[in-house]
Amino acid sequence: MMEMDERKIRILQAIVDDYISTGEPVGSRTIAKKYNLGVSPATIRNEMSDLEEMGYLVQLHTSSGRIPSDKGYRLYVDRLMMPSIITPQEENLIHSVLNQSIYDLSKIIKSSTELLSHMTKLTCVVKTPSLNKSYLKSLQIVYVDKLKLLLVMVSDSGIVKNAMIRVDEEVDINAVNSINAILNSFLQGVDLKSIDHQVIVELKSSFAGNEKIFDSLMNQIINEMKDDYDSEIYVEGIQNLFSMPEYKDIDKVKNMFNLLEDTKNVNSLLKAESDFNIVIGEENKIIGAKECSVIKATYKLGDRPLGTIGLIGPTRIPYARIVSILTSFVNELNRTITKRLGEE
User: Fold this and answer.
1) Rounded to whole angstroms, how far apart are CA atoms 129 and 306?
2) Any idea what job this protein has (predicted)?
3) Claim to verify: residue 333 and residue 243 sit in the same structural domain
4) 249 and 112 belong to one structural domain
5) Taking a C-beta distance cutoff of 8 angstroms, is the pair 231, 133 a contact?
6) Would 286 be classed as within a structural domain?
7) Domain count, the chain
8) 3-class SS at 318?
9) What's the rounded Cα separation, in Å, for the pair 17 and 319?
């Protein structure tokens, strides 16, 4: 069995770097000219043949150069890629986007998908926090008129829900403060999954004389929870695929569109085994993603996971730069979320 010695590693690193940069299969002469490896083209050619036999390289045609296999990219990502640092301008851009109003986290997450797809030139997919894993931080009823109230629900994970409620019985503006006090005394800090029949019965007993108002409010609260019980998924930057040689084939573009339109598939792609994952080609369990790489990270409130951010592209992507951008972004997002939502 052939061993992966230092020379083979240096040659593989040069091939992956060159192929990521140019998108063209790499030959031995190219490596000899562009990279100071101290060996002849003939020696490089023999080593490339060995690397192909070992499964780290693939030769598409007999007369062409070679490209990295999924196994080659995996070794490169795990052991060979050089660290990349984002620019001060990129740091400032991330900071400015994340320091908008963080109290509605969904809006920040949506802006994040746009920024990350722009910075990486990849497709960005983000999974938002779900209400079924959240607690009610505050619930506010705002008087609009005698038969109309505005409901504002805020979860501890930054989800904000607004809804206009029409009531069958006139509401006295002076009673709104009392209604808010009753609702929050029962529901503030409550796990939303635990709002069951018993809680509703106990709460209703505090609305003696205002049962119709209570029914309207609780129906709307329950409906809002059902409508957004699961996480939302934002996708941005699918158009970035059009500029990549790997997606000149229109069928591949269609397959990617179909993949990203399937919520079940996207959830599977974003399923994270740890806080930061790089999944390459055949490592993806979804059939339609076998030619893709997915770099994904979990964002948190303190130590509590809230959702996942994923960057999707072909296996030929600038891994070091993408890892640097996503790491910097998620670290800043985590700091901002914890600072703003963890204040109270």
Assistant:
1) 5
2) Negative regulator of class I heat shock genes (grpE-dnaK-dnaJ and groELS operons). Prevents heat-shock induction of these operons.
3) yes
4) yes
5) no
6) yes
7) 3
8) coil
9) 10
Question: Are 204 and 262 within one domain?
Answer: no
**How far from chain centre, in Å, is Cα 314?**
17
Among 304, 296, 162, smallest CA distance to 223 is for 162
Burial class (CB in 10 A: 0-12, 13-18, 19+), 311: buried
Write out the two tokens for 19.
Answer: 């192929």
For the chain, the farthest-separated pair of C-alpha atoms sits apart, in whole angstroms, at 92
| Strand 304-314 to 123-127 pairing | antiparallel
> Which of 227, 252, 268 is at the close of a domain?
227
Q: Quick one: average pLDDT of 163-178? A: 81
The answer to whether residues 242 and 322 belong to one domain is yes
What DSSP character marks residue 211?
Answer: H
Interatomic CA distance for residues 99 and 257, integer angstroms: 32
Which range of residues forms the domain containing residue 111? 88-129+231-341
Q: Tell me the HSE value of 197 on the side-chain side, using a 13 A CA sphere.
A: 0
pLDDT (tens digit per residue) in 192-234: 667 777 777 888 888 777 777 778 777 777 776 655 556 678 8
DSSP-assigned letter for residue 78? I
- The candidate with the shortest Cα–Cα distance to 304, out of 87, 119, 156, is 156
49-92 tens-digit pLDDT: 999 999 999 998 877 789 999 999 999 999 999 889 999 999 99
Separation between Cα atoms, residue 218 and residue 2, nearest integer Å: 69
187 lies in the same domain as 257: no
In a domain, 1, yes or no: no
Amino acid type, 179? I
Do 111 and 76 fall into the same domain?
Answer: no
- Which pLDDT value is given to residue 224? 63
Residue-wise pLDDT for 147-165, tens only, equals 888 888 877 776 777 788 8
> CA-CA distances (angstroms) from residue 212 to 208, 217, 229?
10, 9, 25
Three-state DSSP at 266 gives helix
Q: Please state, in angstroms and as integers, the Cα–Cα distance from residue 109 to each residue in 7, 122, 177, 251, following that order.
A: 44, 16, 32, 30
Residue with tokens 């998908």: 113
Q: What count of residues does the chain have?
A: 344
Residues 66, 73: Cα–Cα separation, whole Å: 13
